[in-house]
Design brief:
The structure holds 2 protein chains of 2 kinds. Chain A is α/β, with parallel strands linked by helices. In chain A, about 35% of the residues lie in helices and about 20% in strands. Chain A is built from 21 helices and 23 strands. In chain A, helix 9 (about 210-225) packs across helix 10 (about 240-250). Chain B is built from 9 helices and 15 strands. In chain B, the strands form 2 sheets. Chain B has a 9-stranded mixed sheet, with helices on both faces. In chain B, strands 10, 11, 12, 13, 14 and 15 form a 6-stranded mixed sheet that branches. Classes of the chains: A alpha/beta, B alpha/beta.
Chain lengths: ~550, ~300
């Protein structure tokens, strides 16, 4: 048995209501032995060999932060690009800050373009006309005629390229000219036209060394956010075995400062949802459970499974209850509702914890109506059926979620970035201002977590807690103040309640005897700075299973 | 010999779950004889092909002894299309099965601009016995209506389950919700969707001809493409197919119309005349002939090269 290490700190926030604050925490072999102060820990200290480590004596320790829904493999693709975005991303390996004017944006483009060889395609992420003005093919040509340049829109759904890129892609110009969502003159590919471009880009970004570089960067971002546990909420994203090999290599090793729980998709190897066939149902359950054979120390599969209800929020494809969108377009179902119910029934009866991606209030309704039906057919206690993202909802739905025992994992970045623009141009102010209705969720006593869905939003738990408690959007507008959550609830939502959503609350999420020694080291105490100051608190590093990983 | 095609025509078959897309595709696959068909489906589980017809079974593709190939859409429609476009000799026609919750018009964008493809038509399968109830469904009613609106041609399945009076009600209802031609899915075949071998008639089609009427003109001329389009727009919406050749200023154009989607493209193919087909009970011959005659009675003399 190793000797005890006692970390002392200016303040320790345990997230345990019975003893919310402490000054010292004793750790052995990655596990907490006791929490309190040097006086109260004496019975341990008198008996065991120990060292006192006071490196955190000026800092604040919290339970290691938990993000129960993000996507390392998706992030890996994005993070091999250069960033020039109006929103600050604080990337650990880059010096580029927020790029919020046209001049700065063009400077960034010129700098990136001059920075590499002409045969290395350049991908730049983050263009937004509102900040950076219009960018087209000719402009990119004037920056560099030889080097293929691809500029991605901040919202992912369109790109602008130069002539050198056309050459590199070997684009069939004749077909592209006929595509209604490709504009060759401007160099623009949008929506489905983007698939034509991706056909050339995906093999490039998934090339093993590049994909690994992306995953290493994702790992650094996750560490910089102060996380010690994350959940990869959609596995696999690409090719199962190749992806798994890359994940094991980059975030599975003993030097990695966080653990990853995986949430496999509810489809079998053929990409099929189960039909009426009994065998298909058995196959689906076995397929999902068989991932557990991969379990190691850092990477694990528990009892989670992921289902998809309606379309993406940024893309305005979430399903709306009436009345719909201002422009009359319809959202989309990702899974046909009948199939959704049939698959959910198989998973429910097999005892899984089901997580449903549901973004619009009709998507929430489908998940909720399904949960109600399954509860009637075969009641389950403590099933933790999770409403993921939870972009739009109404107060009556929230009460029903509570009565059915559902829990919520909310994406608050929607309301930060989209409540203003969606209010004006997409769904009207009332519904937009009430995005991610967590105040009602808290009042109904429903456990909830906050997630980043990284790369949909920056992987910064304290920023998410700031949004949830302040509800001030990007334009500085206070939206639906009654839906703000309390500071306590927001801090629980990135620690102990996030652990609850991942069914790991017995091991992580708070600081008490017997739990994993996972801490996030802060320069300020969230309860001292209050809700206004949450996003300005610096993460100084983490301790993962007793080992410090300082930033 | 078939003339070389620069692009493979793509037909999208959409429709909600249970509308009969898969049965339709199964039939097209196994019936196909002269045309080599490539079919992209959401999963093989539903596809039910006689083992005797299967030449080779791979992980993502099944090759049939009649030359057809069936491929599953795994990661994306684009990558599945790329797979199937690699096959040599080139396939004659590609069918994409849209997922039950897809907007067929979005899937049709693959036909419009994917390298190597051209869009033939969007066919939406509709279960005649359930669609009216389904259109009121809490979750998918609006989707089903949208799918119907996006169709060039509606293929009605399970029409045999309806009494005559119900059929009539159904057609009234469809008229309110769509501007597309409608046919019994059992009459849909690949030659019907694509056939060009014999432009003077649709005799080669496996149709019960007493259920359909055709109109034919031997030569067709128009002053300009705009003029041609204005005439095509005048045709009754019940026209299921129109095919053939039109001369404009001494150049020859190939006309293809499937339901409400028409294409007009310059062509080197040999042939003359135009033929249209529509369900017998939907409109009378005179209505169609009057429109087509406008192309026939042009004052311009036929170019000498055409005999």
């Amino acid at each position: 048995m190793s000797e005890l290490v006692v970390y002392t700190a200016r303040q320790i926030r345990t997230m345990e209501p019975s003893m919310p604050v402490a000054e010292a925490i004793a750790v052995r072999d990655g596990q907490i032995v006791g929490v309190g102060n040097l006086e109260s820990l004496k019975p341990w200290l008198e008996q065991e060999r120990h060292t006192i480590d006071d490196r955190f004596s000026g800092d604040v320790l919290m339970p290691g932060f938990i993000d129960p829904h993000l996507h390392p493999s998706m992030a890996a693709r994005l993070l091999t690009m250069e960033f020039a975005t109006a929103v600050e991303w604080d990337l650990p390996w880059a010096e580029i800050g927020a790029v919020s004017t046209r001049t700065d944006f063009l400077d960034a483009l010129n700098k990136f373009a001059a920075d590499g060889p002409d045969d290395e395609p350049l991908f730049i992420y983050g263009h937004h006309p509102r900040w950076h003005g219009d960018v087209d093919r000719e402009l990119l040509n004037s920056i560099n005629r030889q080097r293929p340049i691809v500029v991605w829109h901040r919202g992912y759904h369109s790109i602008i390229v130069n002539d050198a890129c056309y050459q590199w892609m070997g684009l069939d110009m004749d077909s592209a000219r006929r595509h209604p969502q490709i504009d060759l003159e401007r160099g623009a590919f949008f929506e489905n036209g983007l698939f034509v471009a991706n056909r050339h880009f995906v093999p490039h970004s998934l090339e093993p060394s590049r994909f690994r570089l992306g995953l290493e960067r994702a790992r650094d971002v996750i560490h910089a956010g102060g996380h010690t546990t994350i959940c990869d909420a959609a596995f696999p994203m690409y090719d199962l075995e190749l992806e798994w090999a890359a994940l094991e290599e980059t975030i599975g090793g003993s030097e990695v400062p966080f653990r990853t729980e995986f949430m496999p998709y509810a489809v079998n190897t053929e990409g099929m949802a189960p039909g009426d066939d009994d065998q298909q149902r058995v196959d689906l359950v076995q397929q999902i459970q068989s991932h557990r054979e991969r379990n190691g120390h850092r990477l694990t599969f528990g009892n989670h499974v992921k289902m998809l209800a309606d379309g993406g929020f940024f893309a305005e494809l979430m399903r709306l209850n009436p009345p719909g969108y201002l422009d009359g377009h319809d959202g989309e179902w990702i899974t046909p509702p009948e199939q959704f119910e049939a698959t959910a029934r198989v998973l429910w009866n097999a005892g899984f914890q089901i997580h449903v991606h549901c973004t619009g209030d009709e998507g929430v309704e489908l998940a909720l109506a399904t949960l109600e039906k399954l509860q009637w057919e075969r009641p389950r206690f403590d099933h933790r059926f999770t409403f993921e993202h939870f972009g739009l909802s109404d107060a009556q739905q929230v009460r029903r979620i509570g009565r059915q025992g559902g829990v919520v994992s909310g994406q608050v970045y929607y309301l930060y970035e989209l409540s203003d623009v969606f209010g004006r141009t997409s769904i009207g102010h009332e519904r937009a201002s009430q995005m991610t209705r967590l105040g009602t969720v808290e009042r109904e006593g429903i456990p909830f977590a906050l997630h980043s869905d990284f790369t949909m939003a920056p992987a910064k738990p304290l920023h998410n807690a700031w949004i949830a408690t302040n509800r001030i959007n990007e334009s500085g507008e206070l939206v639906a103040p009654n839906e703000r959550v309390s500071l306590d609830a927001a801090m629980r939502a990135i620690t102990i309640d996030a652990a609850f959503i991942l069914n790991k609350e017995a091991e992580i999420g708070s600081l008490r005897w017997g739990k994993k020694a996972d801490f996030t080291v802060l320069n300020e105490d969230p309860w001292d700075v209050g809700i206004e100051g949450l996003r300005d608190i610096s993460i100084k590093g983490t301790v993962f299973e007793g080992t410090p990983y300082l930033l | 010999m078939r003339p070389a095609r620069p692009r493979i025509p793509v037909t999208v078959i959409g429709g909600y779950l249970g509308a009969g897309k898969t049965s339709l595709i199964n039939r097209l696959l196994t019936e196909s004889s002269s045309e080599r068909l490539g079919v992209l489906v959401n999963d093989f589980g539903e596809i039910n092909i006689d083992d005797a017809l299967i030449a080779e079974r791979g992980v993502n593709t099944i090759s049939l002894s009649n030359g057809c190939v069936c491929c599953t859409i795994r990661d994306s429609i684009g990558s599945a299309l790329d797979e199937i476009l690699k096959i040599r000799p080139l396939l004659d026609h590609v069918i994409i099965e849209a997922s039950g919750v897809a907007h067929p018009a979005k899937v049709a964008l693959y036909g419009q601009g994917w390298p190597g493809c051209s869009l033939n038509a969007v066919v939406v399968a509709v279960d005649a016995s359930t669609i009216r109830t389904q259109s009121n469904d809490r979750f998918v009613g609006s989707l089903c209506l949208e799918q119907i609106r996006q169709a060039d041609l509606l293929a009605l399945t399970h029409l045999d389950l309806l009494a005559d009076s119900q059929t009539e009600l159904l057609f009234d209802w469809l008229n309110q919700h769509s501007n597309s031609a409608t046919l019994d899915a059992r009459a849909l075949s690949i030659p019907f969707l694509l056939g060009l071998e014999n432009t003077s008639s649709f005799d080669d089609l496996p149709l019960k001809t007493n259920n359909f009427l055709t109109s034919h003109i031997a030569y067709a001329f128009a002053n300009s493409k705009d003029h041609l389009w204005s005439i095509l727009d005048d045709l009754p919406i019940q026209i299921l197919r129109l095919k053939g050749f039109v001369n404009i200023d001494g150049s020859k154009y190939l006309i293809q119309r499937v339901g409400s989607r028409s294409s007009v493209e310059a062509t080197d193919l040999n042939g003359d005349g135009l033929v249209a087909i529509w369900p017998a009970d939907s409109c009378d011959s005179q209505q169609v002939t009057e429109v087509l005659e406008q192309l026939h009675s042009r004052c311009d003399p036929p170019p000498t090269s055409v005999v």
